[in-house]
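Morning run. Coffee first, then this:
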Amino acid sequence: MSLCLTPRIEAITQAVTGRSVSMFAQDMQHILPALQQGVTGKRLLVIGGAGSIGSSTVMELLRLKPASVCVLDPSENNLAELMRTIRSQGERVASEIIIEPLDYGSQLACAYLASQKPFDVVLSFAALKHVRSERDIFSLLRLLEVNLLKADRFLATLRQQGHGRHGVFFVSTDKAANPVSLMGASKRVMELLLWAHTDAAAPASLVGGGEAPPLSQVSAARFANVAFSDGSLPWGFLQRLEKRQPLAAPGDVRRYLISPREAGQLCVLACLACPSRHVMVPVLDPVDDLVSFTDIATATLHAFDLQPAWFDDEDRARSSVTTELARGRYPVLVTTSDTSGEKDIEEFVAAGEHALDIGMRATRTVAAPVVDFKAISTVLIGIDLAVNGVTQMCKSDLVELLTLLVPELAHKETGTSLDGKM
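And here it is:
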């Protein structure tokens, strides 16, 4: 059973969403001259650009003919595959491509950026993005370290070295709107942190202090689920098929879904066409565009000429793979969503926010609120002390700390984790 992933993923996504053309294609074409002006001949820096969303965005940016694209990503394997993909595609790429296996918040990355002449546009996809990171205090602190402390250090470096004068973009998440998980709350704080670095009175680093000019053009995007992105549940469907293991899908969860290319296009639009200090969000209908994971599982199996065989018992599902395959079927365990931090609904605009029309068909934006960078600094320093072992914290302490900046955080604690499920 050959996976042939890319065409199959596009076909599965189209089957589930009913879209045969990217929902952002019309907006991309409508403002193409502005996109070209922002990218053609420019020097681009892409952090975390070897992951699913980052690499899709890199491919979209290369179509706009930048002078160079530098990708920093700690995954050496993903960087190698990104370079192979770029070099093996049908059209030769004239842009200079640079890859570096660097963690964006590390001292080595800071030294590397100090050695480079300024990058015009900076996009960051670096994040820990799984709600399952609520498993224990250590994984939670690691999530906050990556999503916030390293982001602050990186933004300070950009300001000090003069990078990103034509734009700095950070990827966010739909879970930042009315968050119920600490991951979602961390991304909401990340948005606030980004806005804080545009304040002329804010120190270069909200944790470490110092002086530097503020960033002038910043934006973000909140996402729907990206079909088959690394580590996602649909991506797990492909891994289970390859390993001859049953699929598992919550039967009570519906989510918005966009394709990998749509994800890349949304990031390009948010980076180059979004007003500064705004978050771009997709326009999706809560009636027509929400899809269930059981529907995605069914479409995935159909792509491999298989029918789903539904189970409600883990042991029976595990033991039935060979038998069901002989019948042209594949076992799918249908579960109930009952883990900590899982949202019941998917939304992009939080309470108190307003979606603004900026003349695009498939996107809207949300303006940044007034930001108290001193309050953000207080919270980040508290996290820094916990990460470095100076103070001891439990999950409830972190919830209380983040609520200082995200009062709408309604943390959903059930006592269970996704690690306890198939």
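Residues 13-228+257-288+354-417 form a domain with the Rossmann fold fold (CATH 3.40.50.720). Good start to the day.
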